[in-house]
Every structure is written in C-alpha cells, then in structure tokens.
Amino acid sequence: VTIDAASYGELLLFAVAAGDTVTALGTFTIADGALTGSGTWKTDGNVVFSSTANSAQSSSTGVLSMTGSSNRTYTYTGSVPTAHLKIDKSGGATVTPASGTTALNVSALTITAGSFTAPSGTLTIGYAANTATPLSVASGATFTHNSGSILFDSGASAGTSTHTIDVATSLTLNNVTFTPGEYGDSMVFTTGAGDTITVAGTL
User: What SS3 state is found at 4?
Assistant: First the structure.
C-alpha cells in the first residue's frame, strides 16, 4: 500500500472508519498525506516513511500497526512527524531500522508485543499531542534504545496537558530531551504508577 497525495498539490487525510482495519500484506509506504480516523491501518510488511511525506503535524492522528511473525524494518528519510506507530509482533519478531535509517519521528509509539529497536540517531515522539500515552511498552515487549536519543516533542500543544510514559515496571533510555510547545505552553510528561525510567546518557 502506498499513501500519496503529492499529485493533488495539497494535503489529503486518509481515514479508516471506527471499527475498521485496512491491512497491507506487503510494504506500507507513506509518500505524502496523513493517516487519520479511529480505525486501524495494519501491515505485515516493512514500513517506509518517504522524504516527501507531509504529515500536516497535528493531522496525523491515525494508528499504523506492524503485525505478523516475521522480522521487519522501518525506513525514515523525512523530517516531519508521521503516524502513531504500534508494534504488535508475534513470536518475538523484531522491528529494526533499515540500513541508512538513523532517525524516526512519530506522533506516538506503542509496543504491545515483539521487539522494537530505535534508530541510532534521534527518535522523536509527540508533536501532535494526540495521545495521553506517547510512549508505551507492555510487559513482555522490548524497547532497545540503540545508543540513540529520544526527544519528546511538545510542538503543537496549546495549553498544558499531561502525558504518561507507561512501561512494564522499568525501561532504560540513552539520551532524553523534552521540548517546549511552540505556543509557549508545554506538555507535562509523567511515568505510570510504579514505573521507573532510567536515563543512561544525558537528560
């Protein structure tokens, strides 16, 4: 599946209705446009976020779920926020950055099953402030920081809102940065009850 609105000369929102799921058995590519809607976009293949992708920032509220039992990769060559990425792999399958991918920018990251390896550069989460839980790692799932940095971006927030980083008891990150909102306001980040987040590098 390729999502591409570039030929229209303006942003298009691609929505899945509540309760519906659209599944790509192969590679899922976002070339331009934004994923929205209350339903779910799902792929059993690799994910490609093109350098031409335009998420319209706060418009990119859709969930893209990587499923299946095979190891997969993500490619990111852009500079803008993309969808809410959900990792739901079975059998201990992994999602890792493709060769040459050193960054990723998502509105939220949810790891319910399987293993996710962050890019070696910067993983940016947030911007649209469209979820109360920008980062979630379930029990039995794995997040590997890959010696990279994670940036929680308050960019499009207006007013102060609280967002929870919810992990299975504990999580180790490398370098962590929090940015203020562009309107002078900010998101407040907190941890789930009983959770401990360790910063091994710079905070």
Answer: coil
